[in-house]
Design goal:
This protein has a single domain, classed as CheC-like (Chemotaxis protein chec, 3-Layer(aba) Sandwich). By secondary structure, it is α+β, with helices and mostly antiparallel strands. Helices cover 46% and strands 32% of the residues. Strands 1, 2, 3, 4, 5, 6 and 7 form a seven-stranded antiparallel sheet that branches. A hairpin with a 2-residue loop joins β6 and β7.
Length: 196
């Protein structure tokens, strides 16, 4: 399926709204200025998602959302960015655990991932004036394919495409890279986009 330019521009508007909402809520949580930008949006076939994500080590947080639109949202942090998150949140609370992640580290990353996923969808709901319900976010620490494959197996019968939002968060002069993978019910997403 092809997405026309007008719809992509509207999707970009939704992405910006979601990112602004994420930045605001992270700023409230951290007590510092936070900026989030979506650098690029890719439209990919579901079968190509594992290749796009690759097999690097990541920490992922994912949830389902129901309403207009509906689907799955996954945020993926490369380990370097995940470590930057723990340094921001746990500064003065816990000593850095080298390259590994302690339980407290993973809890901090999970909390930030929860805020990113839920705030991104809330931003869409605000822009669309739509009610979108979300599930409790789940956190997984593994290689990229091991994070993504169980989700894809679960939904392969219902979904064909995904949007990948290459994003970064800037806080205290740190660039934290993350990827937001949205796997939507395409008809509902197009209906939502047409509202804009």
């Amino acid at each position: 399926m092809r997405i026309d330019l007008n719809k992509l521009m509207k999707l970009n508007k939704m992405a910006k709204e979601g990112a602004q909402n994420v930045a605001y809520n992270l700023s409230q949580m951290l007590g510092i200025d936070v900026e989030m930008k979506v650098a690029k949006i890719e439209f990919v076939d579901l079968s190509d998602v594992p290749d796009v994500i690759g097999d690097r080590e990541v920490i992922g947080v994912y949830l389902t959302f129901q309403g207009l639109p509906s689907g799955f949202l996954v945020v993926l942090f490369p380990t370097k960015s995940a470590k930057k998150i723990t340094n921001l949140l746990l500064q003065g609370i816990e000593e850095s655990n080298g390259d590994g992640f302690s339980e407290m580290d993973l809890s901090a990353i999970s909390e930030v991932g929860n805020i990113i996923t839920s705030s991104f969808i809330d931003g869409w709901a605000n822009l669309l004036n739509s009610e979108i319900n979300i599930s409790t976010p789940q956190t997984v620490h593994d290689m990229g394919s091991a994070v993504i494959d169980p989700i894809l197996i679960q939904i392969a019968q219902q979904y064909d495409n995904a949007f990948l939002f290459n994003s970064y968060i800037k806080a205290k002069n740190e660039d934290i890279n993350c990827e937001l993978l949205v796997i939507p019910e395409l008809e509902k997403l197009m209906e939502a986009i047409d509202r804009l």
